[in-house]
Amino acid sequence: xxxxxxxTEDAPEILALQRLAYQSEAExxxxxxxEPLTQALEELERDLxxxxxxxxxxxxxxxxxxxxRIQGDACEVGRLIVDPEYQSQGIGxxxxxxxEVSFSDAHIFQIFTGxxxxxxxxxxxxxxxxxxxxxxxxxxLRLMHMTKQVQxxxxxxxxxxxxx
Length: 164
Known about the structure:
The chain is α+β, with helices and mostly antiparallel strands. It contains six helices and seven strands; from the N terminus they run βααααβββαβαββ. It has helices spanning 11-21, 23-29, 35-38, 41-50, 91-102, 118-126, and strands at residues 2-5, 52-58, 61-71, 74-82, 108-114, 130-138, 141-149.
């Protein structure tokens, strides 16, 4: 598996994987109108200009992705996706670690997930994220905002990772 920066040319494949990966989230909440499922290709292409997207590739096929961007001194991480065929193999953890390395100057990493998304919550907690806020959106969904505080020397600097 190779993790590298995604480009605009990767947008159609990332969007298809995003729609596949978020089916399980839609099922949990019985809501198939969530933004990752309804996002248009043009929107994802714009996101690729605004965020750093990383992709995990096996045999010329994107099997995972994550995005991040700096907002102040924090890195907003999101859209961690892994092909259902490849889940539970550590790919999500590797993508998260690589996005953190890519933003090694950030002092705080932030991510959110729904309160019923137990696998996501457990993964993020294993990676050092703590629930910092619970935001009720509606009767069916509370967003679990999770943060990870890091010392500047706690993460390798960008470029120290041989896979990007």
